[in-house]
Design a protein that fits this description.
Length: 428
C-alpha cells in the first residue's frame, strides 16, 4: 500500500498536477476505497489546517512585499547595493546577492525576490560577460534567501506547527542569512578572478550617498518590523500589518510611485498568492493527518529514533530527508507534512527547536532551486530563461548551498548566539 501511495504521488507530480491536488487526491482515493472513514474528515482537516493565528501574518507580509516592489523600493535597493559593491571584483554578482538579501528582508518571499532582483541584474550580468548559466544559478540561489532572512513566511508556518518562538526564529535567520549570503558573495569573487573578469570600478562617494539616501526608507522597513517584535511593541502577526501600512505610506506619500489603483492591483495579486499558499498548507495538513493515522509517521519516527543517540547522525538524516523532499514539495508542505514527525525526535535528542527551524529553512531554500521541481526554476522562466538553462545554472550553487547548510547545522552559534541575547531558553 505505501508503495502504491508513493507512486501515485510521483505520477501526479510528473503529470504537472497542482501540488494541492497531488496532496489531496491520493488521500481521498485511499479513504474511499480502503477504509470506511467519512470524507467529511478531509474537509474538517482541510479547514482546521489553516485555523492558526500566526498564519494571519502571511497575507500581510505578501501584500507588503508586493507594495514595496511596485512602489520602487526594490529598484532603489539594487541601485544602492550596486554603488556600494562596485569596487569589488565580481561586483555585479556580489550586488545580486546583496540586493537579494535586502529584498528578502522586505518581502519574506523567495519567488518575489528572484523576480524583483532578476529583472534588473540578469540582463546586466549577461551583458557584463558572466555568461548565462552563472547569473541564472546565482539569481535563483540568492533569491532563496527569502526563506531564511526574516520576515520569512516559512518560519511563521514552522512556528505555528511547532509552537517555537517566531521572534527567535526571525532573529536566528539573520545569522544564517549572513553565512549563506557571504558564501555566495565569495563564489562571485572567485568566479570573476578565475575567468579574468575585470568589472570592478572605483567607489563614487556621491553616488553611494545619493542612492543610500533614496533607499533609506526601504532599509528602515526590516528594522521597524524586527525592532518592534524584539522590543515587545507588537507580535509578528501585528508586525505584518504594520509592514503593509508602512509600505503604503512610503510608496504613495514618500516615493509617489503608486496610486490607490496600484494598491488595489497589489491587493488582488496578493490575494491570489495568499490563496495559493493557504490551499497548499490546508492540503498538506490533510496529507500529514493521513500519514499519521495510516501509520506512515511511525515508520519515519522509528527511522529517526534509531539515530537519536547520536545527534550528528540524526542531523545528517534530517538534512537528507528535507533535501529530498525539497526537490518535489514546496517549503510550506514540507513543514506541515514532515515537521510533526521530525521535531519531537530532534528536540528529544537535545536539538534546540529554533536551531532546527533554521536548519529546515536552509534545506528548504536549497530545495527552491533544486531539480526537478524547485519553484525558483519555474520562476526564472518568466525572466526569459529556458528550463534547461535554469537546471544547468542551479547545479554548482546547490553545492555551495550544501556548504552553507553544513556550517549552519554543525556550528549552532552561527544562528543561536544572537537570539540567545534576547531569549533565556536558548542554549548552544
Amino acid at each position: 500500500m505505501p508503495i502504491i501511495f508513493g507512486l501515485s504521488l510521483v505520477g501526479l507530480l510528473l503529470l504537472g498536477v497542482p501540488v494541492f491536488i497531488v496532496l489531496l487526491l491520493p488521500v481521498i482515493g485511499f479513504l474511499e476505497f480502503t477504509t470506511n472513514t467519512s470524507q467529511l474528515l478531509v474537509i474538517q482537516r482541510f479547514f482546521s489546517g489553516i485555523d492558526k493565528f500566526p498564519l494571519m501574518a502571511i497575507p500581510f507580509f505578501i501584500l507588503a512585499g508586493n507594495l514595496m516592489a511596485r512602489g520602487g523600493m526594490s529598484r532603489r535597493l539594487i541601485d544602492f547595493a550596486s554603488a556600494l559593491m562596485r569596487p569589488v571584483t565580481g561586483g555585479l554578482g556580489v550586488t545580486t546577492v546583496t540586493s537579494a538579501m535586502f529584498f528578502s528582508a522586505i518581502s519574506g518571499s523567495s519567488p518575489a525576490t528572484v523576480i524583483a532582483v532578476g529583472k534588473t541584474m540578469l540582463p546586466a550580468m549577461v551583458a557584463q560577460g558572466y555568461g548565462r548559466a552563472f547569473p541564472i544559478g546565482l539569481l535563483m540561489s540568492s533569491g532563496a534567501m527569502g526563506i531564511i532572512i526574516p520576515p520569512s513566511i516559512f518560519m511563521i508556518v514552522y512556528g505555528a506547527v511547532t509552537g517555537a518562538s517566531i521572534g527567535a526564529l526571525f532573529i536566528a535567520g539573520i545569522g544564517a542569512g549572513l553565512v549563506y549570503g557571504l558564501l555566495f558573495m565569495a563564489v562571485c569573487v572567485i568566479y570573476a578572478r578565475a575567468t579574468g573578469m575585470r568589472d570592478a570600478a572605483p567607489w563614487n562617494l556621491s553616488e553611494i550617498l545619493n542612492t543610500g539616501r533614496t533607499c533609506l526608507w526601504g532599509l528602515a522597513a526590516p528594522m521597524i518590523i524586527l525592532g518592534g517584535i524584539y522590543g515587545g511593541i507588537f507580535t509578528p502577526t501585528e508586525a505584518a500589518a504594520i509592514a503593509v501600512a508602512y509600505a503604503m505610506f512610503v510608496s504613495i506619500v514618500i516615493y509617489r510611485e503608486m496610486t490607490l489603483r496600484d494598491v488595489v492591483a497589489c491587493a488582488v495579486e496578493s490575494a491570489v498568492t495568499t490563496a495559493q499558499v493557504m490551499i497548499i498548507i490546508a492540503a498538506a495538513s490533510v496529507f500529514a493527518w493521513y500519514l499519521t493515522t495510516s501509520g506512515v509517521s511511525r515508520v519515519v519516527e522509528g527511522v529517526l529514533v534509531g539515530f537519536s543517540q547520536n545527534p550528528v547522525q540524526l542531523l545528517l538524516v534530517i538534512n537528507l530527508i528535507i533535501l529530498v523532499a525539497g526537490m518535489v514539495l514546496d517549503p510550506n508542505s514540507i513543514i506541515i507534512i514532515l515537521v510533526p514527525f521530525i521535531a519531537p525526535v530532534a528536540i528529544a535528542a537535545g536539538i534546540d527547536p529554533t536551531h532546527l527551524g533554521i536548519i529546515l529553512a536552509v534545506n528548504a531554500a536549497i530545495g527552491m532551486f533544486s531539480p526537478p521541481f524547485g519553484l525558483n526554476l519555474f520562476v526564472s522562466v518568466s525572466l526569459g530563461v529556458t528550463f534547461r538553462e535554469a537546471i544547468v545554472g542551479s547545479l554548482p550553487f546547490i553545492a555551495v548551498g550544501l556548504v552553507a547548510l553544513m556550517i549552519i547545522t554543525f556550528v549552532p552559534a552561527v544562528t543561536l548566539w544572537l537570539p540567545a541575547q534576547f531569549y533565556d531558553n536558548i542554549a548552544f
